[in-house]
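Case study B.
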Amino acid sequence: MSLEEPGLLKVEDLRVYYKTRSNPVRAVDGVSFSIKQGEILGIVGESGCGKSTLANAVLRLIEPPAYINGGQVFFKDLNLLNIDEEKLNKIRWKEISLIPQSAMNALNPVMKIYHQIKEVITDKKIKFSDKEIKEKSEEIMKRLMLPSYILNAYPCQLSGGMRQRALLLLSFILNPNLVIADEPTSAVDVVTQRKILEFLDMQRKDFGTSIILITHDIAIVAEVADRIMVMYAGKTLEMGDVTKIFENPLHPYTKTLMESIPILGVKREVIGLSGLPPDLRNPPTGCRFNPRCRYSRSTDICKLKEPELRYVENNHLVACHMYS
Amino acid sequence: MSEILKLNNVTKIFSLGGLLKKRRVIAVDNVSFSIPKGKPTTIALVGESGSGKTTVGRLVLGFIKPTSGKIFWENKDIYKMKRSEWKLYRRNVQAVFQDPYESLDPRYKVIDTLMEPLKKFKIANSRSESLKMISETIEAVGLRHEILDKYPHQISGGEKQRILLSRALLINAKLVVADEPVSMIDASLRASILNLMKDMNKNFGLSFLYITHDISTAYILADSIIVMYLGSIVESGSFEKVVSNPRHPYVKVIIDSIPLPDPKRRWKSAIKLREGEGGLTPKDMMKFRLRCKFCDRCAEAKEVCWEKTPPIIEIDKDHKVSCFLYA
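Model:
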């Protein structure tokens, strides 16, 4: 499968495995997607589906025992998986920045926030005066609704929500083209969550920043994303326009995800999913979701052949035998 | 109406720091609420981190003692109970915590974990009777018998929470304090745990104190809701009433900020909430006590909000709010 549309970032058939004593864990197993300028792509999946591994692999930030077993990552004509480390370092933070998971602990505990910002800027060999750095920071802080005293605070003096937003400040300070946000709102209260999501939306609208929003919470994807990609066990199961997929989810897994979340003010039965995600050392044959799928029958094609991700209509891809 | 559990002006102040620089943190500030007797009820105790909701849970479980105020179980002060009454209280009030990986003894098989309380509280007369009770309960919570021979590391987080819930059923507890029981569980499994809790509430007569930061999960099972902010109750009452018509400015903002899984109903305007005065230093907390704790962030704050503690006002039957706007 290839996505024809031109994009800022294009990932093709990416495979990231983890070495074990037995078979490798196929955490990301042939994932392709692209993202346009100014677009927010939500990548959704439950724990262990490979979404964080995917985020790190795009910037080649994975460490052994993980390794890239194939695929390509194109960013503005450059293949990020082939270029040398020095070149890639120039792209990191300046053009693509990553907000890692457990961002609350990602700040340096013995440095004031201001010095952490300054470090990023000097590391990228950009000549900004102290005044310029302050001005730039304050502009973003206003958008993040952060009070100005945080620049002179150590991370431990800030609340969790503030730390999380301080990290967003760092990620956006050089105005990158693409920001990969890995669970940027986990472990914050709903008010801070909303501030963060509104900030991401604002940056995209005002500066055309593309954002990959990785989360387990499909409700926040519905709130800000343009497109959504649903991952399960290292594979993409469904991808498309957010309105289309929320209106008419096609893949049985996506359907279950939608049914399993309680919605305030809507009285309905919430239905869960039984069983466990597969062991990715020995993934099930055929469709990886088939052991938990309510439509899968014992002898049918679901157990024999892996479904291909294909278009069912414009901007809507599904990997399921029901639609082929 | 009588209550099984009643908290009367409970305050918990933690003292931190050394001899010279003693700091005090008011985790729970003058909190009162009750759970009615004879009518299994689920109360959702909601608030952001630091609001004191977990401390309330720990107080109810008897892990910590209140600084002032009293907690009654069936009209008896839990700190004036006789040994035997206290033992019964510990049996009646059970807990389920956030992290299922830490709540089960890793060296115990599931069967042993379930056997222990039966022995301790002398509920079953023989091993065969125990086994029968366990197998019935396991089925009731939707687990298979094979699980009894497994160790905690061999089972999933959702199954662990089910086991902890089944233990409460097994010893015939009356109240379960469930502190964020589903926040570490994947969305698709979450629903089944919430449904199980609802089922236990409706069919087995257990009451729940469901402590969470996530109001939408509470929607499935809660009859009433208590919203806390910096240790105080800001709004409480029937879940339906509070959620459909929130009155406190803080509660209005949080209800409005819950993301809906519907791209057609996105947030329309930017959030109307100022940043607090920055951090929660214990010094501030003592100061906050003399005024509305939310006034520095409130868009509708009046002068009086800075001067006095807001009164608790009954807006409607079964709907109370602590705010000067309604005084």
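The first strand of chain B starts at residue 3 and ends at 16. The remaining cases will be described in the next quarterly update.
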